[in-house]
Amino acid sequence: MKAIVSGALAIVVLVFSPAMAQDKPWFDTKNCDFCKQFAKDPQLLENMIWEYHDISNGLMIITAVKPEFKASYLAAQEGMEKVAQEMAQGKQDVKMCEHCRTYGALMMSGVKFEHVPAGVGDIMIMTSEKPELLAQIKDFAARSREGQAKMGKKE
């Protein structure tokens, strides 16, 4: 499932300029077709955590969900997969926040992505041995932590 979402995000980067919207919010659960999947259950976001941890050659994102919200979390992932499939089939009007757009840009740049499903959620690992890509990964992590702070989300 994550592979499909990741692939679709990569396609979007080819269609949209990454410089399009410096003033847009980093996360946008109201307008981003990917992120708003997490807002379908109005209690999901407050009952999950996602942490961005720098590692020596990249980033590790840990997502954990309270057991009683696991079904909502899985439904959100399925919704994201559906959006990704629509993009892969040529849907042109998919809206993306800066987080999702940047995530796709990292994919297109050659960053290595590893997805580890976990009982409580997921672990995503982004790595690169190239200094310029490592700097982009670290910037993505910092901006994501800042975006979480603006949302009132704590790590």
Structure description:
With about 160 residues, this protein is of the alpha+beta class. The protein has one domain (about 1-15, about 25-150). About 45% of the residues lie in helices and about 20% in strands. Strands 1-2-4-3 form a 4-stranded antiparallel β-sheet, with helices on one face. A hairpin with a 2-residue loop joins strand 3 (about 110-120) and strand 4 (about 120-125). Helix 1 (about 1-15) packs across helix 2 (about 70-90) and helix 1 packs across helix 3. Residues about 5-20 have low confidence and may be disordered.
In angstroms, what is the radius of gyration? Answer: 15 Å
**Global geometry:** globular
Helix/strand-derived category reads alpha+beta
Low-confidence segments, given as residue ranges, are 6-21
Number of helices: 4
Instruction: Please list the strands of the largest sheet in the order they lie side by side.
Output: 1-2-4-3
Task: Summarize the helix and strand pattern as letters.
Answer: HEEHHEEH
Q: Tell me the strand percentage band.
A: 15-25%
Alpha-carbon distance between the two ends: 25 Å
How many individual β-strands? 4
Tell me, rounded to a whole number, the average pLDDT.
85
Q: What can be said about the biggest beta sheet?
A: 4 strands, antiparallel
The domain tally reads 1
Q: Report the oligomer.
A: single chain
Into which percent range does the helicity of residues fall?
40-55%
